[in-house]
Write a structure and sequence with these properties.
The protein is mainly beta. The chain has two helices and 35 strands. β10 and β11 form a beta hairpin. The two termini are 18 Å apart. 38% of the residues are buried.
Length: 438
């Protein structure tokens, strides 16, 4: 992330992750601090977070390892402390008490200060709000009135589990606007525990989300012990529902937003653009257990109208598997994507669903999932955590090329002071942009 002339980057070490702050102007490292991934590891990507204080100071917020209070030490528990550092100087502005933090620090209401969710003595969730300028901390119903075990899964959207029932809740500025059972929105077998992706369009008063679904009576923790297959069209669903009420507007069976997770939405009709947002839909195939392999799986890309879910355009189905997907992960604003089958990918205009011609001189910014080692101790042993993405210049085939072009830099969302900042494998680089093109 970039703000106020500083780039905040996470980099893995032999034993964990460090935060590094670099000057956008000259690439000089300003400061570094260790980062603890917390209980959201390994599944929730570990990504840099920048917030602002009430006085307007840009601040890096994350977790660091902490010592458990006497008598509460455990090999299966991670005690961490939420911290805040001045983005420009690296000065420590806040350090919280050791807690069993369940959700990493995030900007309160998506705007300012430091919020996090931790477990109380009864293993229930409490959201905390820290005024970084004063160090004053508020927690409980004044910050978030939800009860049970809850966590944010999207902008203003929470997953809540209480009395064995999972709900989705819209919480805005300390007010619970609604709570609806997850299965009433996504159907039987749906759970945020299986993973999901949610997009909030304030302009349209709309959430669009996808969830993975277990259509069987087999508990997920028993999948490795059973031999069975699932129809892929029964394992996922995308739903559009009113942000103000939770009322379902449309559903698309067998579809997911995961394939387009690296694409921005700025150029789409979810915001102020004219391109269509994308979902991917399985058209046939099964997943086998306990191997987890896809069999005869095909999927297509769909450009859809956000308020109705209706299809604007769709591509021909292609073969998919764990290592072969509908889209090559690339940076962008939502107006194009690289789609197709291996060795036959091309640039897709998401306004029309038509492929556009490209040449060998056209370069894109491809993205690859970053991984990091877990800290020693705690609940996740011998497992790698998922980070954000690192980039590399590529052709439409996804093959790496030696250098970026100016056109590719237009797809970068991390630009500050007329400079595009990009994280590559093992290094960070800044590219000067021409003001007339920004």
């Amino acid at each position: 992330m970039v703000a106020d002339g500083v780039a905040l980057v996470y980099a893995k070490t032999a034993t964990g992750v460090n935060a590094h702050a670099f000057s956008v102007a000259d690439g000089k490292q300003l400061w570094t601090q260790p980062v603890h991934p917390g209980y959201e590891a390994p599944s929730v990507p570990l990504e840099p977070v920048i917030t602002r204080t009430a006085s307007g100071r840009s601040t890096a917020i994350f977790l660091q390892a902490a010592t458990a209070p006497a008598g509460l030490e455990s090999d299966e528990a991670w005690w961490t402390a939420p911290v805040a550092f001045d983005l420009s100087t690296g000065k420590e502005l806040y350090r919280g008490q050791p807690e069993v933090v369940s959700t990493r620090p995030f900007a309160c209401d998506g705007l300012l200060d430091l919020c996090f969710v931790a477990y109380d003595q009864e293993s229930q969730s409490i959201e905390h709000w820290v005024d970084i300028d004063s160090g004053e901390e508020t927690g409980g119903a004044d910050v978030n009135p939800l009860t049970g075990v809850f966590r944010p899964i999207g902008k203003e959207l929470y997953s809540v589990v209480e009395d064995g029932v999972e709900k989705l809740a819209h919480v805005s500025f300390g007010e619970v606007l609604w709570e609806v059972e997850t299965e009433k929105i996504f159907g039987k077998g749906a759970s945020a525990d299986f993973g999901g992706r949610f997009i909030y369009s304030e302009k349209l008063d709309l959430f669009v989300g996808s969830m993975w679904i277990n259509p069987t009576n087999v508990s997920p923790d028993k999948f490795a012990e059973q031999t069975f297959t699932m129809n892929l069209r029964e394992t996922a669903k995308t739903v559009g529902f009113r942000a103000s009420s939770g009322r379902v507007l449309w559903t698309a069976d067998g579809s997911t937003l995961d394939c387009s997770q690296t694409m921005g939405t700025e150029a789409t009709t979810l915001e102020d653009g004219d391109s269509f947002p994308l979902r991917c839909e399985f058209t046939e195939g099964h997943i086998e257990f306990p191997s987890g392999k896809y069999r005869s799986a095909k999927s297509k890309l769909v450009g859809y109208y956000p308020l109705t879910g209706d299809v604007s355009w769709e591509t021909e189905p292609v073969d998919v598997g764990w290592s072969t997907r509908e889209l090559i992960p690339t940076a962008g604003h939502g107006d194009h994507a690289i789609a197709g089958v291996p060795r036959s990918q091309n640039l897709l205009d998401t306004r029309t669903g038509k492929f556009r011609g490209t040449s060998f001189e056209d370069v894109f910014i491809c993205l690859e999932q970053a991984m990091y080692p877990m800290p020693p101790g705690g609940p996740y042993k011998d497992v790698s955590g998922s980070g954000s993405f690192w980039a590399f210049p590529c052709m439409k085939s996804g093959s790496a090329v030696p250098a970026l072009t100016y056109g590719a830099l237009m797809d970068v969302s991390t630009a500050d002071q007329d400079t595009a900042v990009i994280s590559f494998e093992g290094k960070v680089a800044g590219y000067k942009l021409l003001k007339d093109f920004v």
